[in-house]
Amino acid sequence: MIATGKPATGAAHRSRIAIVGAGVAGLVAARLLGRKYDVRLFDANDRAGGHSHTVMVNVAGGEYRVDTGFIVCNNRNYPLFLNLLEELKVGLVPAEMSFSVSNPALGLEYNGHNLNTLFAQRRNLWRGAFGLMLYDILRFNRIARRYNGGGTVGEFIARQGFGDWFAENYLLPMTAAIWSCEPRQASEFPMGLLAGFFANHGLLDLFNRPRWYSIAGGSRSYVAALCRDLGDRIELERPVRGVSRLATGVRLRFDQGSADFDQIVLACHSDEALAMLESPDPAETEILGAIPYRTNAVTLHQDASLMPDQRRAWASWNFRAGDESGNQGPAVTYCMNILQRLKAPQPLLVSLNAADRIAAETVLGEYRYSHPQFSERALAAQARRGEISGVERIHYCGAWCYHGFHEDAVRSAVDICRRLGVAP
Ligand SMILES: Cc1cc2nc3c(=O)[nH]c(=O)nc-3n(C[C@H](O)[C@H](O)[C@H](O)COP(=O)(O)OP(=O)(O)OC[C@H]3O[C@@H](n4cnc5c(N)ncnc54)[C@H](O)[C@@H]3O)c2cc1C
What we know:
Elements: E1 16-20, H1 24-33, E2 38-42, E3 54-59, E4 62-67, E5 72-74, H2 79-88, E6 92-95, E7 99-103, E8 108-111, H3 115-118, H4 128-145, H5 153-160, H6 164-178, H7 183-186, H8 191-200, E9 212-215, H9 220-230, E10 234-235, E11 242-245, E12 250-253, E13 258-261, E14 263-266, H10 270-276, H11 282-289, E15 293-301, E16 317-320, E17 331-335, H12 336-339, E18 349-352, E19 363-372, H13 376-382, H14 385-388, E20 394-396, H15 406-419
Parallel strand pairs: 1-2, 1-14, 2-10, 7-16, 14-20
Antiparallel strand pairs: 3-4, 5-9, 6-9, 7-8, 11-12, 12-13, 15-18, 15-19, 16-17, 17-18
Helix pairs in contact: 1-9, 1-15, 4-6, 10-11
Bound molecules: flavin-adenine dinucleotide (FAD).
The site of flavin-adenine dinucleotide has 33 residues, from α1, β5, α10 and α15.
């Protein structure tokens, strides 16, 4: 189908807005802008949702809906997303948020959930290095709360004299798990962003932490509700290959044909948006080019060797350090039985960048998702989004505009909608 950009005969002209990307940012933009404008939402994929991707699996005679991308939100940091779920009448399921580290080279395993799991290996009780790590965690919590400087996480660790165990078995694994990157990259992460995020999400507090939830029925529940409301205004398997500015509008180029609109919202990743622009101006090249994405291989599987050896140490998020030989890199594994409260009798696990160490016969599915890579340069570029978004009829949104999470994607879409005169 090729849209023409002309209003139907006899219909009052409503400004036409194209939205590219049906992840949560694009879906929210389409829902809100659709109240005032004639919207059309395009996605390259054969399903809507982007990183919200629930898959159905059959194990041991039962059927389970497993989230392989976006999984959890909380009652403190997701106000816009939770309002949306309420409007859509989509329910939540309480989730346990716990974090384990296994470091085979050190013979170390712990799960920070409670004292019993922290000392899952009873010998941690009298291990000096473990005690020092706990002391460093408390010291870090105190210092990070007041942190307002620049620099990277690695520089901060060195400057403050934190120990290797704290760096390698706590802060870098936790950062790597939260932002889906490798510990090596985590040390390059901007310390200001990390300190702010840890403080806002209660990660520096022993008590008074936010309550976490997964989505009842998996994230596909809310995606389906949004799609139902949008109806035939969504076109799937419709990759946009190019975007160019016209004197009074914008032109979208598809594999076959093109369509003209009054304005466009690019609700895809920063690098994808830049690649789509046929003549980006220098500010667009600079800003979008400064926030790269990195692709992670995600495997849904049942190989428990990625989890801590001791069952007591199993957490919802599990970090396993690489081996000493360097043959196996570090891996992050989400235990979906714990996170989504799935009652499956066998483990349902989602691991990042660990495909080479997962027993092939346990694999239930493989996916690729890209994450924004934050650096000081990227943060400086983010702060300049206003220089390009909404300028000459092209608007930008997506999780990359803030911290990279679901609420960030929603918030960035709401920013645009407010600018275009639609409040959530
Ligand atoms: C494994 C994993 C776990 C996560 N867990 C959490 C979590 O628990 N909590 C949390 O808050 N966040 C989590 N996140 C992050 C969060 O899910 C994302 O930040 C958010 O969903 C991104 O939404 P988005 O709309 O910006 O982008 P996406 O969801 O990536 O959507 C972008 C869309 O644009 C489309 N597109 C791209 N190019 C084109 C084109 N040329 N033409 C048409 N369409 C195009 C894509 O097909 C895609 O559908 C997780 C992410 C991953 C990958």
